[in-house]
Structures are given as structure tokens and as C-alpha cells.
């Protein structure tokens, strides 16, 4: 997650102009701290640094630590940085005898907070408590620290975020300094001179964040009947360009049949789903704008899409698994989605004129667990009972399930794919074959690679048949 770096554009003089021994900080005689120095662009900042700390103090309400694993619970690097960031701008004043949110308001208390330790440890106890280990300069990553492990006022610690540039002579770090309070700024490696000996250390319980794997080919697959010829089409976003393409049926998946219907920006949209929300016989798209959480309707014109209309004012980033179909049996397509926070599945009833019911009018059609499902789509009717159905993948098992529509919601699920569907990077559902039964078009690809597109035809009894390759590459 990108974060503002307050000191990034500031011209910083890294020379320490005053030798500030941490020993100057005296608890009994009042804590010596200067007012925070405003970092205005172009300003030359006189670096005032250093630390010191009060005694080891357990965090109230936390289990008394008896081992390193309990002192330092597992935490990701991005969580450490987020926690460090959370104390910025709060106006907290350096004070070895004060606490905020259970942690001591000094250098080691601040790092203890960022690492979510069960005690505010001190510079000379991080290692002896089994929390930290020494690492090399070259191993430093976000959430590690530069530590002077001297006792009391001679010790200090700063959190490492990232190198300033490839020379690795200075870094951007967080610290609770005796003279500048909580600050996020550029620090010469390993630390400002005159403050003792610093070495790079790692909290052994800090884990690397899971890599963000992007789907490099086509993403946000969805399907519907856009061209008015009663043959379903596939719609997908090209990751490299953010363009939206329509792959016309019956040659769904063929590059030769694709038509540009969105010129850019579609990488900023999520939860793209298709259905006819204005009852004109042509399917429309709905999609969430990631930056605002708004839900938009893009009416299908038969040859492309009309300009978008806002149909949900916000909060749609908290919803996933969007699908469109008629799930209350009134002949009008509705929007369904699962709520990430509660795992509930909701139906937002379609009015037939392009709008849907709001938050107050939504109907719960699934009581929980839907946040454990992935890629929920409505391919139409899968079992020839005339009612739209849902298909989705269970994240924990990779199994594919059918949830039959019953006119007021969906019934209990039936397994229609025994596993491996987590390896499918995306799929869309519609009747591609023209037999009145919903089918799936799915991309099989290795992680981080493009793949091929396959058609899984609906059998008519709710299941799907064996895959047929319909897109040879780039998916
Ligand atoms: Ca329409
Ligand atoms: Ca309906
Ligand atoms: Ca059905
Ligand atoms: Ca079919």
C-alpha cells in the first residue's frame, strides 16, 4: 500500500549539528524534547535525534509473556509499517514515563508498539527476550530496525522502512526521538553520528507480505448477451492497457472476433458483472470503481456501452462476488453480492429501469460464509428449471459449487467441480452454446502467467462437461 513519505521531498542536512547524547534526557528532571521541527519543502532541517527509554512494561490486557513467541506474535512487514505510521500526527510527546495505547512513549516503546509486542521492551532487552536477531545491512527490509542496544538513556532504536536510493547511505525510517517525537524521515545509515553504535536487527516474528500476484493477461471476465443476436459474448479487461474488449459469440474467445468497447481505465474497476438491468433485451455491465467504492451501470447499446450511471453511492469496495440475474422471480435482473465483513449474501432487487434497491432495500439471501467463496457468477439457468442459478469456487478447497435459484434466493449448494478451481484465474458464465443452458468460459494459467481460455458447457442437469479450448493464448 503506498504511503505518503513526509520527508521525501525535503532537502535534509544529515550532519548532526549538536551532539545529543541520549544521556541528556532525564526522567526525573522533566523530559528534554523540542517542539517538532516542521518539514516544509525546501527547508534545511537541523537533525535532532536520539532516544533512551523507561523500564520494560507489559502492555495492559495482553497475556503475560513467557516466551519469545508470545512476547512477539507474528506480524507482517506492512502491518509493522502501518502501525508505525498510526502514531504519526497524533501530537504524542516523548516521555519515558508516559504510555499511549499501552505502550511507552519513547523510542523502544514505539518500536514495541509497531511490532505488537506484549511488553514495551527496551533497547537492551529486545535480544535477551528472544525477540530480535542481528542481520546484515544488505538484509534490511521494511519493519526491521537499527538498534543501539545500550541501556537506558544511552540506547536508541529506529524502524527501517526503505533505502533512500541505491547508494544505501541513508534510509527512510520511523522513530520516537527525544527531540522530535514521532517522526518519519531520512536517517543516515546506520544512524546520526554521536549517538553510539547501531546495528541492523530483525524481529524474528516479522514475516514477509504475500506477494501481490497480478493476472497478466485478461482479467475481470464477465459474460452476457451484448450484441442482440441471442448468442452470449465474453467481456474482459486487458491488464496491460486497461482496455475493455468484447469477444463476440459464437466464436467466443477468438481474437479475430473481439471488439473494443472500453478505451481505458478498466484496471481501476472491480467486480464487473453483466445482466439486463434496464429490461431492453441487451445486457448491461455493472462494476465497482476501486478508488471510490461506487457502483456504476454501463448500459449495453447493442454495439458497445453507453456512458456510465452511478447506481450505488459508495461502500461497494466492501462487497465482492457481484453477479446479475433474476433471483426473486419477477422477471427483472437483480444485483447480488457478498459482504466481506459479515460473509452474508445480499440481493439488491432490480427495478427494470436501470436502478437497484439500496442498502435499506437489500434482502439477505445467504446467512454467512460467502466471504469464503470466490468468483461467484450467474451463468443463467444451469438445470433447465427456468430460474437463474449461481456458480462459485470455495477458496479453501478449490471446489466448484452450484447454488440453484428457487425464485426467492438460492438453495443449498451442490458440488459440480471436485477441485482445482483455485488454479482458474477467472471465469465468466453465460449460455455460449445457445442451448438455453448456462456455460462457463474459464482461464487456466500458471500463477503470474497468461493462459488459455476453455469452455465448460453446462450439461442441463446443473453440472458442467469437460473443457474445450476456445482461446489459444494471452489469457
Ligand atoms: Ca440492458
Ligand atoms: Ca428480479
Ligand atoms: Ca436454474
Ligand atoms: Ca449452453
From TrEMBL:
<dbReference type="Pfam" id="PF13517">
    <property type="entry name" value="FG-GAP_3"/>
</dbReference>
<dbReference type="InterPro" id="IPR013517">
    <property type="entry name" value="FG-GAP"/>
</dbReference>
<dbReference type="InterPro" id="IPR038765">
    <property type="entry name" value="Papain-like_cys_pep_sf"/>
</dbReference>
<protein>
    <submittedName>
        <fullName>VCBS repeat-containing protein</fullName>
    </submittedName>
</protein>
<feature type="signal peptide">
    <location>
        <begin position="1"/>
        <end position="34"/>
    </location>
</feature>
<dbReference type="InterPro" id="IPR028994">
    <property type="entry name" value="Integrin_alpha_N"/>
</dbReference>
<keyword id="KW-0732">Signal</keyword>
Amino acid at each position: 500500500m503506498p504511503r505518503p513519505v513526509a520527508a521525501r521531498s525535503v532537502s535534509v542536512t544529515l550532519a548532526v549539528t549538536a551532539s545529543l547524547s541520549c544521556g541528556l534526557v532525564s526522567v526525573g528532571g522533566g523530559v528534554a524534547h523540542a517542539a517538532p521541527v516542521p518539514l516544509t519543502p525546501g527547508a534545511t532541517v537541523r537533525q535532532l535525534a536520539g532516544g533512551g527509554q523507561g523500564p520494560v512494561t507489559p502492555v495492559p490486557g495482553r497475556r503475560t509473556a513467557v516466551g519469545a513467541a508470545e512476547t512477539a506474535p507474528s506480524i507482517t512487514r506492512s502491518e509493522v509499517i502501518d502501525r508505525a505510521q498510526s502514531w504519526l500526527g497524533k501530537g504524542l510527546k516523548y516521555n519515558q514515563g508516559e504510555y499511549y495505547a499501552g505502550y511507552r512513549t519513547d523510542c523502544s516503546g514505539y518500536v514495541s508498539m509497531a511490532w505488537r509486542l506484549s511488553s514495551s521492551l527496551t533497547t537492551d532487552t529486545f535480544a535477551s527476550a528472544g525477540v530480535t536477531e542481528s542481520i546484515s545491512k544488505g538484509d534490511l527490509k521494511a519493519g526491521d530496525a537499527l538498534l543501539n542496544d545500550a541501556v537506558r538513556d544511552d540506547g536508541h532504536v529506529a524502524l527501517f522502512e526503505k533505502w533512500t536510493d541505491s547508494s544505501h547511505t541513508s534510509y527512510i525510517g520511523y522513530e520516537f526521538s527525544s527531540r522530535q517525537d514521532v517522526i518519519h524521515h531520512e536517517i543516515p545509515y546506520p544512524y546520526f553520528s554521536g549517538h553510539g553504535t547501531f546495528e541492523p536487527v530483525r524481529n524474528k516474528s516479522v514475516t514477509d507480505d504475500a506477494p501481490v500476484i497480478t493476472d497478466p493477461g485478461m482479467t475481470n471476465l464477465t459474460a452476457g448477451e451484448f450484441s442482440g443476436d441471442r448468442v452470449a459474448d465474453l467481456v474482459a479487461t486487458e491488464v496491460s492497457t486497461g482496455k475493455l474488449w468484447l469477444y463476440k459469440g459464437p466464436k467466443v474467445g477468438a481474437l479475430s472476433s473481439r471488439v473494443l468497447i472500453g478505451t481505458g481505465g478498466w484496471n481501476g474497476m472491480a467486480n464487473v458483472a453483466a445482466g439486463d438491468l434496464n429490461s431492453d433485451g441487451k445486457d448491461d455491465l455493472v462494476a465497482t470503481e476501486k478508488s471510490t467504492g461506487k457502483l456504476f451501470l454501463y448500459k449495453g447499446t447493442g454495439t458497445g456501452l453507453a456512458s456510465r450511471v452511478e447506481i450505488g453511492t459508495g461502500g461497494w469496495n466492501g462487497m465482492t462476488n457481484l453477479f446479475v440475474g433474476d433471483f426473486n422471480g419477477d422477471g427483472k435482473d437483480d444485483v447480488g453480492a457478498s459482504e466481506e465483513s459479515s460473509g452474508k449474501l445480499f440481493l439488491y432487487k432490480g427495478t427494470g429501469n436501470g436502478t437497484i434497491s439500496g442498502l435499506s432495500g437489500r434482502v439477505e439471501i445467504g446467512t454467512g460464509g460467502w466471504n469464503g467463496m470466490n468468483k461467484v457468477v450467474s451463468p443463467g439457468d444451469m438445470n433447465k428449471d427456468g430460474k437463474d442459478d449461481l456458480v462459485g469456487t470455495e477458496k479453501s478447497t478449490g471446489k466448484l459449487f452450484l447454488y440453484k435459484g428457487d425464485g426467492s434466493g438460492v438453495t443449498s449448494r451442490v458440488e459440480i467441480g471436485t477441485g482445482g478451481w483455485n488454479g482458474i484465474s477467472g471465469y465468466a458464465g453465460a449460455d455460449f452454446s445457445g442451448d438455453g443452458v448456462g456455460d462457463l468460459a474459464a482461464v487456466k494459467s500458471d500463477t503470474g502467467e497468461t493462459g488459455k481460455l476453455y469452455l465448460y458447457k453446462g450439461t442441463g442437469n446443473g453440472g458442467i462437461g469437460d473443457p474445450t479450448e476456445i482461446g489459444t493464448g494471452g489469457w
